[in-house]
C-alpha cells in the first residue's frame, strides 16, 4: 500500500481537472459492458407498459426489430430475451418451452435476420411457461430436479437452433449446466455459449419481473428450495465452481446491488467472465426515485453501473442499458 502524508501528498491534485480524473480512473464503464433485457409478448400493436417498471414495455414481434434498433446502433453487444407467454399456453409441465415457434424462438430468428451481429441471450427456465410459476416441474409440491433438467436440456437446444447465441439457465437446478452442455454438443451446437445464473438468490427484488411475465399471480409457494439463501456467501462459490466444472463459459450473480460482495468474491476467486443482473426491483426503485426527482437520473444510472464494474462485473444486465449507452456515447 502506497502511503503519504499531507501536505507533501495531496490526493486532490489528481482530481483537479476532468482530463486528469479520466486519466487516473481505476475503473471504466463502456457500452461493451451493457446487456439489455427485453420482454417479448404475443400479438401486434403498440408495446404495452409494465406497470411496476416505469419506462419498460412488453413488445410484440411486429415491433421488435424497431424496438431493438437503437440498441444495435449504439453498439450494445447483446440483448436478453424473456417471453410473456400467454396464459392459455402455460401448463404444469411447461411444454411451450419446447415449441420451436414459441416467442423466444420466433424473436431469435427475426432478430438474427435483422441484426446478425447482435448477440442474443435466451433465458432457460420453465417459470414463463408453467401454470404454477416455478422454474421446473412440480411433484407433490416439490420442484423435481432431474425431471426438470431433462426438459431444460431440450429447451436449450430448441433456443440454440433458433439462433440464440448464449443459453442462460436461470432455474438453479443441480447439474443442469453439464446436461445442457452435453445436449448442445450432441446436436453440433458447440459454439453456443452458456451464461449460468450460478448464484441466484431467493430475493424480494424479483416482483416486477414476475409481474411483467405474468407469473407472479400464478406462483404457488416460494422458490427457496432451489434459489439460494440470501444469508449465504461461501455457497455461491461452490455453485460457481460446479457450474464452471460442468462447462459454463460465463457466470452470473443475481440480484446485483445487494450482492456486490458476491460479485467481488466470484471475480477474485475464479477470474472468469462474471456478470450481474440489476434486477427489476432494483430498477423499479431507482426509476421511481429518479422520476420523483430524488436522484439525478443521468448520474444515478452511471454511478450504479460503475459500482458493478468496480466490484468486478464484466458486464451488467440492466433495463437502463439503452439510456446508459446514450449517456456513454455523449
TrEMBL record:
Endpoints of the signal sequence: none
Entry keyword Plastid: no
One cellular component (GO) term of this entry: cytosol
EC number: 4.2.1.24
Residues the record lists as binding Mg(2+): 239
Active-site residues (renumbered): 200 (schiff-base intermediate with substrate), 254 (schiff-base intermediate with substrate)
Enzyme class: lyase
Annotated GO MF terms: porphobilinogen synthase activity; zinc ion binding
Pathway the protein takes part in: Porphyrin-containing compound metabolism; protoporphyrin-IX biosynthesis; coproporphyrinogen-III from 5-aminolevulinate: step 1/4
Reactions this protein catalyses: 2 5-aminolevulinate = porphobilinogen + 2 H2O + H(+)
Superkingdom of origin: Bacteria
Keywords, in A-Z order: Heme biosynthesis, Lyase, Magnesium, Metal-binding, Porphyrin biosynthesis
Family annotation (PROSITE patterns): D_ALA_DEHYDRATASE (PS00169)
Gene Ontology biological-process entries: heme biosynthetic process
Protein family (similarity comment): Belongs to the ALAD family.
Entry-linked PANTHER family: DELTA-AMINOLEVULINIC ACID DEHYDRATASE
Protein name, entry field: Delta-aminolevulinic acid dehydratase
Organism: Acidiphilium acidophilum (Thiobacillus acidophilus)
